[in-house]
Specification:
By secondary structure, this protein is α+β, with helices and mostly antiparallel strands. The chain has a single domain, classed as 2-Layer Sandwich (HIT family, subunit A), CATH 3.30.428.10. Helix content is 21%, strand content 22%. The chain has helices at 5-11, 58-74; strands spanning 18-21, 25-29, 37-43, 82-85, 101-105. Strands 1-2-3-5-4 form a 5-stranded antiparallel sheet, covered by helices on one side. The relative contact order is 0.22. It binds guanosine-5'-monophosphate and zinc ion. The site of zinc ion has 6 residues, from helix 1. The site of guanosine-5'-monophosphate has 13 residues, from loops.
Length: 114
């Protein structure tokens, strides 16, 4: 997708602080962190929202969670805990329409979320 910010990061057109790469996913630090660790984990394939996923994407989505587990361990968050969030559409706060898992850690989180 030529006008997609995260596709541009995948293509190297826009720089990012990349901390994890796999065949199917890429992870980089959020530009406006909401916690001491705030990482975005994205699939290499462009999918706009959760609503656009189908059965063929199950392995791809699973790989985002595998990445989250590895990054949490790498960042020293595994034992204390961390949060993973994927917003779907504007009403939930999605602002970039290429699905991404937020991985947040390093502070306490409230429940329910705001
Ligand atoms: P959303 O609101 O769609 O769930 O999350 C989008 C996230 O992308 C936000 O947390 C925002 O700070 C982050 N973001 C927006 N533009 C950029 C950018 O150019 N680089 C990086 N690293 N993060 C970005
Ligand atoms: Zn994209």
């Amino acid at each position: 997708m030529s006008d997609c910010l995260f596709c541009k990061i995948l293509d190297g057109e826009i720089p990012a602080d990349v901390i994890y790469e796999s065949e199917t996913a890429l992870a980089f630090r959020d530009i406006n962190p909401q916690a001491p660790t705030h990482v975005l984990i994205i699939p290499r394939e462009h999918v706009s929202t959760i609503n656009d996923l189908d059965e063929g994407h199950e392995t791809l989505v699973g790989s985002l969670f595998s990445a989250a587990k590895q990054i949490a361990a790498q960042e020293g968050l595994a034992d204390d805990g961390y949060r993973v969030v994927m917003n779907c559409n504007e009403g939930a706060g999605q602002s970039v329409f290429h699905i991404h898992l937020h991985l947040l850690g390093g502070r306490l989180f409230n429940w329910p979320p705001g």
